[in-house]
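#structure-requests
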Amino acid sequence: MAAALGAPAERREGLQKITGSARYAAEHVPDGRAYAWPVPATVARGTVTAVDASAALREPGVLAVLTPENAPRLAEPDDPTLAVLQNPRVPHRGWFVALVVAETVEDARAGAAAVRVSYDVEEHDASLAEDHPAAYAPEKANAGYPGSTLRGDPDGAFGSAAVRVDTRYRVPPLHNHPMEPHASTAHWDGERLLAHTSSQGSTAVRATLAKLFELPEERIVVVAEHVGGGFGSKGTPRPDVVLAAMAARHTGRPVTLALPRRQLPAVVGHRAPTLHRIRLGAGADGRLTCLVHEVTTHTSQVKEFVEQAAVPARVMYAAPHSRTVHRVAALDVPTPSWMRAPGEAPGMYALESAMDELACELGMDPVELRILNEPETEPDSGKPFSSRHLVECLREGARRFDWARRDPRPRARREGALLIGTGVAAAMYPVNISPSTATARALPDGTFLVRVNATDIGTGARTVLAQVAADTLGVPLERVRTEVGRSDLPSASLAGGSSGTASWGWAVHEACVRLTARLAERTGPLPAEGVEARADTAGQADADSPWARHAFGAHFAEVAVDTVSGETRVRRLLGVYAAGHILNARTARSQFIGGMIMGLGMALTEGSTMDAAFGDFTESDLASYHVPAHADVPEVEAHWIDEDDPHLNPMGSKGIGEIGIVGTAAAIGNAVHHATGIRLRELPLTPDRVLTALTSV
């Protein structure tokens, strides 16, 4: 029997998705369903003084208008962004100030347009600057990382360095924009709540709803069977599920709320803008003597979220003197949150761009510069790496990309009006694992049922978990069924931080090991209900590790820059990764390539503008926020080096969902510099920026 793990098994839900039979959160149709439409605030800071719903209530089909005056009261949430319609304060433009419930979605939208809201408007501040007077140094950044770190004397080392780079980079606000918007369908049956929601973790949603509505968790079932993308924005409960449950309780009807796309940037999180200053000092031989990475970002007045963009600098390169600093200003803006590879994506863009600048200053090959500065242990913690094959990724990528034939001189290749260049960047992403529970059951017909509240957000979790079970049980893959995506299944961690498979797979593996032991003790046929074993990895998956655990990768890009239009086209993208044992070759390649395409968008097309006068994002839909289209995506190759790392989990796997994005933008930016000889330090590299730079030299 062929091994299940590593095989390119097809996604089990694929047929459902391509035939349209996979139902998403807004596609569940309970009897008597009504629809809701939010009313966002039209001021950036102030207080609601009145909500006139009279015209809305006269609109055909309108059932109710919820306002801070009449909405159901909620217990105080741990996440203040969920305290919707609980008080009249407006902390930013787009904050929900009313909700219309109607017979149809068209009726609800018309009713929302008829609501009139009066405000006591206050002056607001939505402009981020490196020297913002309100900026402060937080104790912690996202994910609990220390806000600042210091080793040695970086200022002294920089001052005495033979070669120095002191430069700044800017990454704009970025938005997740999943294909399926944030949506929920809520239905109360007495004091029991059923919620279908588009979420990366229904266990967390159930716990949140239980606290808000002051109910025991066992009275709530949250279902997230299919999720049409999230990229972090659905990692925590969002206002849609809370509002749908409030509206359903208020009206006594099931209610569906699908947030309009234009409202998403204000209420479901975004990647905060990051302003970077990086100082690199090196000897004439290229060895780093100091590394300083300082980041300034924004958060909202609602709660603190600090993009941990300086954290990669603590991991990547050997430098005896180092400082990393985060500074954050609380502005009158929407609350930022997770976006695919938070911290690592903007942080590595800046760091890897600066490393390219250093290579140019040294007259050194940028691949060799990175290899020369490989650390023996994790620089900041001193921990040994559980595995680190970045050098192998760089070498293999250079071989596959034919890097040796590259002319290192900028602006050396030209095809008519096109300037051709190539670039490289490294990538890292931490290994994250959380406790989960799972059950495995052997049935009399020879099949096995694995149950775990994993969330399949399009990554193929159902399939890969079945492969983990089949491999552990030693049975063919087709004999294993999986149930995921419901909070009444064994509880599990959310799909985020590239932690899903590592966390859920560990629990599935342990349950199957225990089931195998139970079956070995039995004689005779199985009972009708089968034999079951349960596992809980609390205390194991979340135990402190003496090892520094990260995935690594190398990105290579070739671009063509049009000197007439300023347009940049990526011709080739190559990623080579070291991410533990790859559990499914087909879904892994899809994850790597998907991340690389998102990185291409970060580099060339994606970016949002905070309108200082109005306090909102100018680019609020897919007509103005440009994600890559098919014509933008070239030949994309993803390869990997299979690692044997025993310090991770029973499968030996690392997360792969986010590392693909991490180095792509820097590789493309470095390729643009190689093509043009001009260093652009603000993303995205749009034609207007490129053409302006080309015509100014």
